[in-house]
From TrEMBL:
The keyword Glycoprotein applies. Keywords: Glycoprotein, Ion transport, Membrane, Signal, Transmembrane, Transmembrane helix, Transport. This is Ferric reductase like transmembrane component-domain-containing protein. Gene3D superfamilies: Nucleotide-binding domain of ferredoxin-NADP reductase (FNR) module. It comes from the Eukaryota.
Length: 719
């Protein structure tokens, strides 16, 4: 039975290559009745069979036969043997009737497989062989017979072959179907929920659901802030539901749709048979999760273009899907260990290349679970990034050689790897093309105090859409790691100029419209009253100062980044008149459409987070905004550098060195002012982002019955 198990684990002995997934465009054993006839007869020697002595090295020993004496029946022998061809044809004729296999399918199968070698054609076609049977055979082949006359195959032997193969094909088809279901659910859910907004009356329903499912975090109000002991970032309720659906699908689809057939020609008992099916199921589901894992991690994830979910959401989901992949891979490996040890195959199989490569993939995936933890990313993001890419390569290469050496591409498992590699290469290609399109640039770097630098890159015209970021490469900063790049919020350089008369008149027109909509805002909206009551900034000493309007100075077209020195790369930034820079972007942070449709937008920024919200109030952002920015006293130089841009925001408050804003009071003020749809955009430290998230969710639930809708956008680079 040991040799039968090896054959069963190989799931076939015939040389063919899969071009699709099993059960999805490909059948392994069609017609199964024909394969059962062929396999049943393959055990019998023919008149032309030769007997010799061969050393098989113990690779597939049979406990009931002498391996020193082997019978060899060549394809050429089968091709010309009358008794073999007529017996096989009669078996086809009698056994395939119940399966209603068309004659032309039997002829095709006969031509390709009758001799067990597609390159060696039998001397007769199936129809001709059947015509050469003068009378129906009556003799049934016994176990030790030589096939030298037209005979009947043993019904029991044929049934065992047929039942084993059809059972295997049934289970294998469900492996692939369940894998595809998981991929479709993972891929289609964001698209589905985005499309729902375009259905009648769905916007109102989704507005009511957002404060319950989309905004709140699932764990103690922490979403951007890490969980205790740096265990990672908790998902929101909506993100957790997505993860929960995938977890439930993986559990259910690992546990159902199995079938057992005994006596099996491959497996000694039902336990062994079902263990093999579960082992393969977990392996296929792991393979199915691999392309989804890579898709969710990509900067150029097509779901970013097809849905309104944010990149931060997809990166968080990537981590959870990757954990599911690693767990399925671990379960697959553990089941294989138990199965091979129980059947006595462990010692002989574990040293083979296919097993070694599978172990490499499993170990690499397991190491990634640990090496991708938040504590590692915070300790050294550069080391995390390099190790992450290298380990991912080992996972994919290990998976490829594991199945290629084991199955020789017979069952279509490699299709999952083709998809994974295509996704990875597509993302890298688009990155390269973005960098190529932006061209080689020169950046002017200006230090702003000890903590910040300003990076100006002229000639880049990416528009003025709010909520964008780009990845910057500074190849000469660290020649040993020129590939290093980091994401930063970008500002159109034009908004850093003091407001011109034209922009002031535009803002005045906006203020007039606001006053018409909301009389309570009339005083703040009237430009003459604005001259009497200027916008103020609160300093650390709680002194109020008035900033006179500066003269308009033309600013060259380009983009500007304000960067806080923190990581290894950014700490190297010093004042430089012409630093080599490459740009990969622009990328959206979140979908801005919902917030831009609001009557009023509240912008809350902390520290360097001002760069994430400022475009909402300037350029092509919203014309009715309120900006609240708090910074530490040490960052006062940043306030000075952004002074001209801040002046362009009519309704603003800047706190330097004082306490943070009372977020609840800010949101309550906007609700009391009578705005019906309020956008809240926050960018800053994790604690500020989480506080705003919690407040918006709470007030959104409370005010929903009053017709007030709060739209939340969190720009936090927690990924």
């Amino acid at each position: 039975m040991r040799s039968h198990l090896v054959a069963g684990l190989l799931l076939g002995v015939l040389p063919w290559t899969a071009v699709a997934l099993m059960g999805l465009g490909q059948q392994m054993y069609y017609p199964a009745c024909g394969y059962a006839c062929l396999n049943t007869l393959s055990a019998f020697p023919l008149s032309c069979t030769t007997h010799g002595h061969h050393d098989m090295g113990g690779d597939m020993p049979d406990m009931e036969m002498d391996m020193s004496s082997m019978a060899t029946t060549t394809p050429a022998c089968r091709a010309g043997d009358r008794a073999y061809l007529t017996t096989l044809a009669w078996c086809f004729h009698t056994k395939c009737a119940d399966d209603a296999v068309p004659d032309w399918d039997l002829e095709k199968f006969w031509a390709e497989q009758a001799t067990t070698d597609p390159t060696v054609a039998p001397k007769w076609s199936y129809g001709a062989a059947l015509a050469n049977i003068s009378r129906p055979p009556t003799k049934e082949l016994a176990a030790d017979d030589t096939l030298n006359v037209t005979a009947l195959v043993s019904q029991d032997a044929w049934t065992s072959e047929y039942g084993t193969m059809t059972t295997m094909e049934f289970v294998e088809a469900w492996h692939e179907r369940y894998g595809l279901i998981i991929v479709l659910v993972g891929f289609g859910t964001p698209i589905l929920f985005t499309a729902l907004r375009h259905l009648p009356y769905m916007n109102r329903l989704l507005d009511r659901l957002n404060p319950y499912f989309i905004y709140p975090a699932i764990w103690g109000g922490r979403q951007v802030r890490p969980l205790p002991y740096n265990l990672g970032n908790a998902p929101t309720v909506g993100q957790a539901l997505y993860v929960a659906v995938l977890v439930v699908l993986n559990v259910v689809m690992t546990a159902v749709s199995y079938r057992s057939f005994q006596p099996s020609v491959w497996y000694a008992d039902q336990y062994q048979e079902v263990m093999v099916w579960v082992m393969y199921r977990t392996g296929v589901l792991a393979f199915a999760l691999l392309p989804l894992t890579l898709l969710l991690a990509g900067r150029n994830n097509v779901l970013l273009w097809l849905s309104d979910w944010s990149h931060a959401t997809y990166v968080l989901l990537h981590r959870w899907v990757a954990r599911l992949f690693a767990l399925q891979a671990l379960l697959h490996s553990l089941l294989a260990l138990v199965l091979y040890d129980r059947t006595g195959l462990y010692a002989g199989e574990t040293s083979k290349p296919w097993w070694v490569w599978g172990a490499v993939a499993t170990v690499a995936a397991s190491v990634m679970l640990v090496a991708s933890g938040l504590y590692v990313r915070r300790w050294s993001y550069e080391i995390f990034l390099i190790s992450h890419v290298l380990l991912a390569v080992f996972v994919i290469v290990g998976c490829w050689y594991h199945i290629d050496l084991r199955f020789m591409r017979m069952f279509g498992y490699e299709q999952w790897l083709y998809a994974a590699c295509a996704i990875w290469f597509f993302d890298r290609l688009i990155r390269f093309l973005r960098v190529l399109k932006a061209g080689v640039r020169r950046a002017k770097v200006t230090e702003i105090g000890e903590e910040f630098v300003r990076v100006d890159i002229e000639g880049v015209r990416w528009g003025t859409t709010p909520g964008q970021h780009a990845y910057i490469y500074f190849p000469t900063l660290n020649p040993l790691r020129p590939w290093e790049n980091h994401p930063f919020s970008l500002l159109p350089s034009s908004i850093l100029s003091p407001p011109s008369k034209h922009s002031s008149s535009t803002e005045s027109a906006s203020s007039d419209a606001e006053a018409d909509h909301n009389p309570e805002k009339a005083i703040a909206a009237d430009p003459e009253k604005m001259a009497i009551a200027p916008v103020t900034s609160t300093t650390a000493a709680n002194k109020t100062t008035t900033t006179p309007a500066a003269a308009s100075v033309p600013t060259p077209a380009g983009i500007t980044f304000f960067i806080r020195k923190s990581g290894d790369l950014t700490r190297r930034l010093r004042s430089h008149a012409s630093l080599l820079a490459l740009l990969d972007g622009p990328y959206p942070n979140n979908s801005t459409a919902a917030a831009l449709r609001c009557d009023r937008v509240l912008l809350v920024a902390g520290g360097i987070g001002i760069t994430g919200v400022l475009p909402w109030a300037r350029s092509s952002g919203h014309l009715n905004t309120r900006l609240c920015w708090s910074v530490r006293a040490e960052a006062e130089h940043l306030v000075d550098a952004l002074g001209p841009a801040i002046e362009g925001v009519p309704d603003r408050e800047v706190r330097v060195g004082g306490r943070r804003f009372d977020v609840r009071a800010l949101v309550e003020d906007e609700v009391r002012a009578g705005w019906r749809r309020i956008g809240v955009v926050v960018c800053g430290p994790g604690s500020l982002c989480d506080e705003v998230r919690a407040v918006v969710a709470e007030i959104g639930r409370r005010e929903a019955c009053n017709g007030v809708v709060l739209e939340l956008e969190v720009d936090a680079y927690s990924w």
